[in-house]
Amino acid sequence: MVELQGIKTDIPLFSKRIEEMNINEEEEMKEKLIQLVEKDYLRTDIPHFKAGDTIGVYYKVKEGNKERVQLFEGVVIRVNGGGIAKTFTVRKVSSGIGVERIIPINSPMIDRIEVLKVGRVRRSKLYYLRGLSAKKARIKEIIK
């Protein structure tokens, strides 16, 4: 058990000198150190969602010296990455024009996220929705 900055871990951080390590061991050690640092910055208040779900993202907008919360509601068309770099793309149609936002999931500008509908899709990336119009772009909902 190793203690680093008050965090106890069973990672053998410095059991070998870097010169003695092979490439895989060195990469594994770097990855574990990055995960250890990232752990403090990951948000835990975000609900689980996937592509096809309809969500409402409440994000903070700064206008001049005022800050307010704005809702962006739409369908998740992709979830990308992992860890602190995880992002998701939300698509909505506003006044007949498709609008997409790529949002980092760990952004401090996100106030909260609500899952409004759970969709049933068979793809992880729903790029085909971009070419469909109103009724054809509908996603079947899972009713619980």
UniProtKB/TrEMBL annotation:
Organism of provenance: Fusobacterium necrophorum subsp. funduliforme B35
PANTHER family from the UniProt entry: LARGE RIBOSOMAL SUBUNIT PROTEIN BL19M, RIBOSOMAL PROTEIN L19
Domain of life: Bacteria
Residues forming coiled coils: none
Protein name per its UniProtKB record: Large ribosomal subunit protein bL19
Family as reported in the entry's similarity comment: Belongs to the bacterial ribosomal protein bL19 family.
InterPro entries, sorted: Ribosomal_bL19, Ribosomal_bL19_CS, Ribosomal_bL19_sf, Translation_prot_SH3-like_sf
Alphabetical UniProt keywords: Ribonucleoprotein, Ribosomal protein
Record-level GO BP terms: translation
Pfam families in alphabetical order: Ribosomal_L19
HAMAP family: Ribosomal_bL19
Record's function text: This protein is located at the 30S-50S ribosomal subunit interface and may play a role in the structure and function of the aminoacyl-tRNA binding site.
